[in-house]
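Response to reviewer comment R2.3. The reviewers asked that we include at least one raw input/output pair. We reproduce the pair for DUF1835 domain-containing protein here without editing.
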Amino acid sequence: MLHIVNGDSVGDKLRLSRIEGDILVWREVYSFGPVFPDMNEDELQFRAQYLARTLGIPAAEFVEGCNSQEEQLRGIHQHEDVVLWFEHDLFDQTMLAYLLHQLFKQSLGDTRVHLLCIGEFPGIEPFHGLGQLSVEQLETLEGTWRKIGKDEFALGSAIWQAYASSKVEDHLAVVCMNTSALPYAHTAFTHHLARFPFAFNGLGIVEQTILELVSDGVTTPAELFRQTGDRLHVLGMGDVEFGHWLRRMLQQPHALLELQDTGQLNEVSLDAPLPPRNSTIMITALGRSVLTGEHDWITIAGIDQWYGGLHLQGPIDWRWDSREGRLRTPQ
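Raw output as returned:
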């Protein structure tokens, strides 16, 4: 049996458990940065350079790791049973869609593929993911997975191709699909769309949430990350990605936030993704005017951001309507 899991924390605990089988930790963050339907070598290199620049992930190590795990995925038919361990958030749902897309193209032979995907666990509140569970708690999930077939593979492949598309209409199509075969997909990809600039003020849901929290008095980096993660747990955002959004909001000359009680911001780094612990984060005058909708941040600062396969640049016609919970189409 092979277990494909969503991170090292889960993989390490499974190795300590009584659950038998080999473990493949899938290390990617498809919810951030550019992705492409099948990601050839040039596209993988492009993604690697983007992640190095924005998150501090070493490009060569990233490419080597991706190629290694892809090779292992191609050998999946050597196992009689494969279990995919995932959860409800966008981080996991993009990863799950990608894996189902890749497996959909393979000849699996007699290999049986099973899915364990949860959005809650007794006694864990708020539930962020499998990494919160102890070894003993993970063991209680043994055998609760279900065998999946053509419906899940076809749906996962369709979701991935839409998410990796450069056409906004394809991204919209995901939340219109019948996603009952993958019940957490609809909510996760609705939150994906909520990352688009708001019609109200040009912020996405991450920036909006951060500004609201700072305005309400949450001023330390660690606490700001914790509370943002609690509010936006459906995104599954880690501290490295959170650090990227924070840096963008601190960037001059159109900063929405500013650091006090510290020197300059650290360089982009996996080891120190957040500002120094003794920093105080405050909202700027521009931040307040954007938060109230007096100014539109995209109009002032522009945008150059990837959401899946969609590259948002320049004037943005498509805006997220937070009241109606949908993307507003161009007039």
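The CA atoms of residues 40 and 183 lie 30 Å apart. The longest helix spans residues 59-74. Further pairs are available on request from the corresponding author.
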